[in-house]
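pls ignore typos typing on phone
adenosine-5'-diphosphate + seq
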Amino acid sequence: MQSTSASRRAVYTGMFDPVHLGHIDIITRAARIFDEVIVGVGINPEKLPWFSTEERVDMLKQVLRGLRNVEVQPFEGLAVRFVRQVGASIMIRGLRTVSDMEYEFTMSLTNQTMDPEIETVFLLARVEYQHLSSTLIRQIAAFGGDLKKFLPAELVPLLQAKVREQPRAVALAAAAASRE
Ligand code: ADP
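k done
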């Protein structure tokens, strides 16, 4: 049976504040499974990301430039709507831990209710990236830690510059880390 182009186009959404090796691994693996992968960079007025939408889109484009079938786009509002807008019907999510599972399960059931034709495909995080999150990376950056094991080397100076430019955001990240 021949599948339609829409069924082979998949969407991976997130805040990517910043993008890290765990995200890149999921996108790389998805790009091998699907003909096209659209990475949707979330604009959420309720969240105050370290990096602007444009910066997050640029960072993703920079680190994904070697993947010919991957495109990066900003989006606002419901992810299911974005999936439709780009003519796809598959959402990719990465799964790290059991706690991710609970959240992702709820989200995918909600998305299924909103649009039953959209399927969510889960890819398991590789063991070496399971502990990674953008929150953790921001906290390590705030404390001046070594970031090279967590994100591509070319992004490290951007994080360090952000730490210098935004002392207040950095202080908040550090305070949150010390409460955990
Ligand atoms: P983060 O948690 O790093 O801020 P997002 O919340 O933007 O990232 O999540 C975007 C997608 O990436 C979600 O499907 C999430 O489960 C997945 N993801 C996040 N971190 C990892 C990781 N270390 N390995 C695999 N997938 C991940």
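The radius of gyration is 17 Å. Residues 14-16, 22-23, 26, 93-94, 96, 100, 125, 129, 132-134 surround adenosine-5'-diphosphate (CB under 6 Å). more later
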